[in-house]
Amino acid sequence: MAEWIPDVLGDEFEQLTLELGEDDEGPLFATLVRALPRELPWWHRVSGRRLPLDDVDVLYVHGWSDYFFQKRLARFWTSRGARFFALDLRKYGRSLRDGQTPGYITDLVAYDDDIAAALHAMGRGSEVTASPRSLVLLGHSTGGLILSLWASRHPETADAVILNSPWLEFQVASARPLIAPMAELQARWAPREVAPQVDLGFYTRAQQEVADPEDPVEVNLLWRPAQTMAVHAGWFHAILSGHAQVSAGLSIDAAVCVLLSARSATPTRWSEDLTRADSVLVVDDIARAALKLGPSVTVERIDGALHDVFLSRHEAREEAYRRLDRWVRGWTAAR
Fold first, then answer.
1. CA–CA separation, 88 vs 114, rounded Å?
2. Nearest of 78, 79, 158, 77 to residue 118 by alpha carbon
3. DSSP-H helix ranges across the chain
4. Could you tell me which of 212, 194, 115 has the C-alpha nearest to residue 154?
5. Tell me, what DSSP letter sits at residue 62?
6. DSSP state, 264?
7. Contacts of 179 (CB under 8 A, 6+ apart)
8. Number of other residues whose CB lies within 10 A of the CB of residue 171
9. Ordered DSSP codes for 189-226
């Protein structure tokens, strides 16, 4: 049986390897990273003091061409008493093995196995609805799409869903119905065909330009390359199918919070404007799509934020954390 071992992030972070069977490229693994809250001093326990989220589990899922590395985001939750877990999905980051196609999948439903294994390792068992602890799902970009679809398929499981620039719609929303049939045909006959690389690395450069020395992050460029990983036809069809489901309307029964940049910028050439906007998604389309997730959706637009709002320049980053804190305090009071 796999055991928790020190994680590459060091400090209080540990990781656990989750076995997921195998596919045509060999054995599959996911990796669960955890950070636990510090135990309160004995005098606080004797006096009955407790932290507001001491009965909460958070499960984070990263985006495309990405993995978990955001220590501060984890500590936002653990400082409030929550247990924080982050999942490196199969064929991403810590879970990628030699000979595997990075990030490749043909159906987002397959990630149900990764999430189920993570929840089991978190001590929630096979019947996750029976846990006395509240479950908060936290997803970025493609991870936000994956968790939104999962929460809709698994009612009465998540207690809150928080999405950081979720990829809920194709960048040219009006073109998706036209592209989808061709993508389906290509995925059927040549699922591993690779699309031309269109990422010029400007999003990575924007993050480097706004890096905050007082809030440093270290990124493994083998797991999160400067230019996005290769886009395969089978994966692209799976993403478009997910977008179509969101467009038709989901039924997430938990409260949803969506954090987005106030505006988008097109990354056709480098400019300072790319350091103050989302250069990956069309945020107005995402805001509209978010309203189809369920009956209780809050959309927070943050001026000057990047695609990952928690990696933005200092002012926007601090505002993102203030908005998150405000929403979480409201959700906690309403529980």
1. 9
2. 158
3. 42-46, 71-78, 111-119, 142-153, 176-189, 202-209, 233-248, 283-290, 314-334
4. 115
5. -
6. B
7. 170, 240
8. 14
9. H-TTPBPPP---SHHHHHHHHT--TTS-----TTTS-S
The answer to whether 139 and 293 have CB atoms below 8 angstroms apart is no
User: How far apart (Å, rounded) are the C-alpha atoms in residues 265 and 286?
Assistant: 14
Classified as helix, coil or strand, 11 is coil
Residue 214, class by beta-carbon neighbours within 10 Å (0-12 exposed, 13-18 middle, 19+ buried)? exposed
Q: pLDDT in tens for each of the 335 residues of the chain?
A: 679 999 999 999 999 999 999 999 999 999 999 999 988 665 566 666 789 999 999 999 999 999 999 999 999 999 999 999 999 999 999 999 999 999 999 999 999 999 999 999 999 865 544 678 999 999 999 999 999 999 999 999 999 999 999 999 999 888 898 899 889 999 999 999 999 898 999 999 999 999 998 889 999 999 999 999 999 999 999 999 999 999 999 999 999 999 999 999 999 999 999 999 999 999 999 999 999 999 999 999 999 999 999 999 999 999 999 999 999 999 999 98
Residues 6+ apart with CB under 8 A from 213: none
Residue 172 half-sphere exposure toward CB, CA atoms < 13 A: 7
Taking the complete model, does pTM exceed 0.85, yes or no?
Answer: yes
As a whole number of angstroms, the distance between CA 128 and CA 156 comes to 9
